[in-house]
Amino acid sequence: MKHIVILGSTGSVGISALEVLASYPDRFDVCALTAARQDERFAEQIETFRPNVAAMADESAANRLRSRPNIGDTTIYSGVEGLVQAATLDQADLVISAIVGAAGLVPTLAAIQAGKNVALANKEPMVMAGQLMKQETSAHGVMIFPVDSEHSALFQSMQGHRKEDIRRLILTCSGGPFRTCTREEMRHKTKAEALNHPNWEMGSKVTIDSATLMNKGLEVIEAHWLFGIPSSKIEVIIHPQSIIHSMVEYKDGSIIAQMGIPDMKIPIAYALSCPEHISLDLPRCDLLKEGPLTFEAPDTERFPCLALAYRALQVGGTMPAVLNAANEVAVQGFLDDKISFIDIEGVIERTMDAHSRLELDTLEDALSADSWARECAGMIVHDCAADSVVMRRGSYA
Ligand code: NDP
Asked: What value does the mean pLDDT take over residues 334-361?
């Protein structure tokens, strides 16, 4: 029996992970779950899976949870310390890291430092502090199994091959909902349009990141740290059908790809059971019905966020943490209707331009770069919002 913790069980990845675990009760036991604010959904998960521990980041949500009748004997913790208690539980064998954003860094790093293997969906900690995460992984002798479908595909395409034979990693990208839009069309895109991803159902932050292509940029940085491959050997290719999840090209010209329907349960299950491929009750990938598989080069003129991520990785130090935090603030600003879709990239670029790179050796370095960038990006969002009010007023005149 493998004892599993899920950080972020009420999210899109967390729910898919619970579905996989529920279909193998003889192999997996859920020992801890965490969430942030959705106490009603979280209470239902606790009632179904009966974890020993449950933690909520939000104190008032945790208090509401404690007063619910259906939580049984589960011990409830709260705040960041509560998340860390769940992530480092003695009996845990594997921690599924599925919190969204920088909030996952502290508990995920704590899990690694407590000697837990991690199934990593939450890419932002790897973007913020990849070197530190890798150092701690080696120091504590633990494994990080990728859950992101692209990284799972790369991981699977490397099995049985030598790292020194790799020529390049090819990360595939659906292109998002605005793949064929001009800059002018993107300027007027609404939140609802940006949240309407063509192939994947995901949480709102990663869906907006997919529309700007920042998600692919974050994945380039994640791939660099996960697999120890320089950014010059990591390429992105648009593949609108999302059937090939990524590929590895070797020195002799062979390209190994991993394919399947776009369903996160597949990479989640592989991270839980690798090297075994366990059965999943999912529709099969019928290549005859899929139609042609096509490829396009990404256009960084129309999607500058991808280029910003490469730039952050090349600058190194604190810059990727700054990129990540500025992106989180900008995406939230867009979701809150404060800035336009096209303003997202401007907020990130201006925050990066204002930052002087520092070394990033410790968790504190990562957290302080994160909080500096949030403050800076917050001010830029505020300015953009004020400018757009002036423009709107002007247009009424
Ligand atoms: P969701 O927004 O659907 O879920 C996020 C989860 O994190 C929820 O459980 C939420 O709790 C919790 N959470 C939010 N804020 C905090 C916080 N401050 N502290 C602690 N917990 C918090 O996200 P997704 O499942 O879509 O994505 C999770 C991660 O996986 C992201 O990093 C994303 O990039 C990555 N990923 C997602 C994919 C997908 O298909 N969704 C695919 C590949 C990678 P609550 O619900 O209570 O607010």
From this structure: 97
Residues with CB under 6 A from ligand 1: 8-14, 35-38, 57, 83, 98-100, 103, 121-124, 148, 200, 202-203, 205-206, 264
State the distance from the centre of ligand 1 to the C-alpha of 396, rounded, in angstroms. 40
The domain segmentation of the chain, as residue ranges, is 2-142, 170-262+298-395
What is the arithmetic mean of pLDDT over 327-335? 98
Question: Ligand 1 centroid to 31 CA: how many Å?
Answer: 19
Strands (E) across 147-189 are located at 166-173
The residue-averaged pLDDT of 242-268 equals: 97
- Ligand 1 centroid distance, CA of 36 (Å): 9
The residue whose CB lies within 8 Å of the most ligand 1 atoms, and thus the one to mutate among 12, 209, 261, is 12
Report the candidate in 299, 257, 294 with the shortest Cα–Cα distance to residue 149. 257
**For residue 147, how far is its CA from the centre of ligand 1 (angstroms)?**
13
Both ends of the chain: CA-CA distance in Å? 69
Give the CATH fold of the 170-262+298-395 domain.
Answer: Rna Polymerase Sigma Factor; Chain: A (1.10.1740)
Q: Are strands 117-120 and 144-146 parallel, antiparallel or unpaired?
A: parallel
Least confident of 61-65, 286-290, 331-335: 286-290
* Structural tokens at position 119: 């199934």
Q: How far is the CA of 371 from the centre of ligand 1 (A)?
A: 20
- Alpha carbons within 13 A on the beta-carbon side of 189: 27
**pLDDT tens, 102-161?**
999 999 999 999 999 999 999 999 999 999 999 999 999 999 999 999 999 999 999 999
If you take atom 45 of ligand 1, which residue's CA is the nearest one? 36
CATH number of 2-142, picked from 2.120.10.30, 2.60.120.650, 3.90.79.10, 3.40.50.720: 3.40.50.720
CA distance 370 to 13: 24
